[in-house]
Design a protein that fits this description.
Strand 2, helix 2 and strand 3 form a beta-alpha-beta unit. The chain starts with 8 loop residues before the first strand and ends in a 9-residue tail after the last strand. By secondary structure, the protein is α/β, with parallel strands linked by helices. A 7-stranded parallel β-sheet has the order 3-2-1-4-5-6-7, sandwiched between helices. It is built from 8 helices and 7 strands, in the order βαβαβαβαβαβαααβ. Helix 1 crosses helix 8. It has 2 domains: 201 residues, Rossmann fold; 37 residues, no CATH class. Helix content is 46%, strand content 14%. The structure holds NADP nicotinamide-adenine-dinucleotide phosphate.
Length: 259
C-alpha cells in the first residue's frame, strides 16, 4: 500500500532499537527522510546503516537524550520541517509502588509524559501552518490494563493520553492527527530484560517465564516489532487523516475487554 507520505520528514524519538526502530524503518520504506535517535552512538549508527541499506532512504542519526531540551532541539533541528513525529522513550523500571519515591515518580512523569508533550509543542504549530501533521505516541497496553510494578509507567502514560486528547481535537481541522499505539508484549530488548528480572525474582528459569508469558496471550506468541511498525506507518499515512485521538492496542488479544 502506498502510504502517500513519500518525501515527508519524520522524527522518531528513541529509535535505535525496538519499537521505535520498527516505526522508523516503516517510515523510511514509505519514502520519508527519517531522523532516528538513541543515547548509544554505536547502536544508533548501526541502525542508521541498516535502515539506509534496506530502504535507500535518507536517515539522520542524532545521539541525544530525548528527555533534555538540548536533545529535543537537536532532533527537531535535524530536518528543515517535521511532518511526522513519533514520540517514544525507555520505560521506568519495574518496582513495587511502595518503593517509588518522589524522585522516581518525577523521573517517570518527565520521561513518559513531559518529554513527549515538549516534543509535540516544538513541532505542532508548523504542522498546523502547513496543513499536514501526523503524531504517533508510543505508550503501553498498561494504559488500559495496568501491570503490577509498572504503576509509574501506567500513570505517566495515562496522563499523556489525557493531556493530548484535547490537543488532538484542537488541531484536527488542519489535517494534524495525534494518536497512540499501545504495545502489549513485543520481542524487544525491553521485553527480554523484563523477563530476566521476573525470572531472577521468582527463581524460575528465563525460558519458563517466557513460555508462561506467551501462554497468557491469546495469540500464543510475542509481537514482532515489524507488526508494530506497520501500524505506525498506517497512522502516519495520508489516508489516516480522519483518525485522531485514538488508542490502538496491539497485544495479540491480551486485553480481555470488549472495547
Ligand atoms: N516491548 C514491549 O513489549 C513493550 C510493551 C509495553 C510498552 N513498551 C514501551 O515501549 C517503549 C519502547 O520499548 P522497546 O521495547 O522498543 O524498548 P527497547 O528495545 O529497550 O528500545 C528502547 C529505545 O529507546 C532508546 N532510548 C531509551 N531511553 C532514551 C532516552 N532517554 N533518549 C533517547 N533514546 C532513548 C534506546 O536507545 P539507548 O538506550 O541507546 O538510548 C532504544 O533505542 C518503552 O517506553 C516501553 O516501556 C514496550
Amino acid at each position: 500500500m502506498d502510504l502517500g507520505i513519500k518525501g515527508k520528514m519524520a522524527v522518531v524519538a528513541a529509535s535505535s532499537q525496538g519499537l521505535g526502530r520498527a516505526c522508523a524503518l516503516e517510515l523510511a520504506r514509505a519514502g520519508c527522510t527519517v531522523v532516528i535517535n538513541g543515547r548509544d552512538p554505536g547502536d544508533l549508527e548501526q541502525t542508521a546503516g541498516e535502515i539506509r541499506s534496506e530502504t535507500g532512504a535518507k536517515v539522520i542519526p542524532i545521539v541525544a537524550d530525548v528527555e533534555t531540551a538540548e536533545g529535543q532541539l537537536a532532533l527537531i533541528g535535524a530536518v528543515p520541517q517535521v511532518d511526522i513525529l513519533v514520540t517514544n522513550n525507555g520505560g521506568p523500571p519495574l518496582r513495587d509502588f511502595r518503593q517509588v519515591d518522589r524522585t522516581a515518580l518525577i523521573a517517570g512523569v518527565v520521561g513518559n509524559m513531559i518529554a513527549p508533550i515538549e516534543l509535540i509543542q516544538r513541532v505542532i504549530d508548523g504542522m498546523v501552518a502547513r496543513r499536514f501533521g501526523r503524531i504517533v505516541n508510543i505508550t503501553s497496553g498498561s494504559v488500559k490494563m495496568p501491570l503490577a510494578g509498572l504503576d509509574v509507567s501506567s500513570g505517566a502514560r495515562a496522563g499523556l493520553t489525557g493531556f493530548l486528547a484535547g490537543v488532538a481535537r484542537s488541531v484536527a481541522h488542519a489535517n494534524v492527527t495525534i494518536n497512540f499505539l499501545l504495545p502489549g508484549a513485543f520481542e524487544t530488548r525491553r521485553l527480554r530484560s523484563s523477563i530476566e528480572t521476573a525470572a531472577n525474582r521468582s527463581g524460575n528459569n528465563v525460558e519458563a517465564v517466557r513460555a508462561s508469558r506467551k501462554e497468557a496471550i491469546p495469540a500464543k506468541r510475542f509481537g514482532d516489532p515489524s507488526e508494530f511498525g506497520a501500524a505506525c506507518g498506517f497512522l502516519c499515512s495520508a489516508q489516516a487523516g480522519f483518525i485522531t485521538g485514538q488508542n490502538l492496542l496491539i497485544d495479540g488479544g491480551a486485553f480481555p475487554g470488549v472495547m
